[in-house]
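quick one
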Amino acid sequence: MILLLFVVVTILLYYLLAGRNQHQSLEEDSSKTCLNCGTPFMEGDSLCRACKESLKKQCSKCGRMVNYGWNYCPYCETGFLGDRKT
Ligand SMILES: [Zn+2]
Ligand SMILES: [Zn+2]
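structure w/ zinc ion:
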């Protein structure tokens, strides 16, 4: 009987931890969502699969493609504050 209880508690803990990990990974991916409709996109996508909104913009300084929503270029650290898409 004690063994059964132990197994049940272990399974419950496993699901609790698994659910928490899933939640964390979702929060980490929240920056990779379409600003227009919120649909998550994969690395390398340049257009939203749901609404065809542009997901990338070109850094005005180094010319590399960066995600919309980023405030700084991760390559040359140029700030995009106040830079609205056209
Ligand atoms: Zn979209
Ligand atoms: Zn740059």
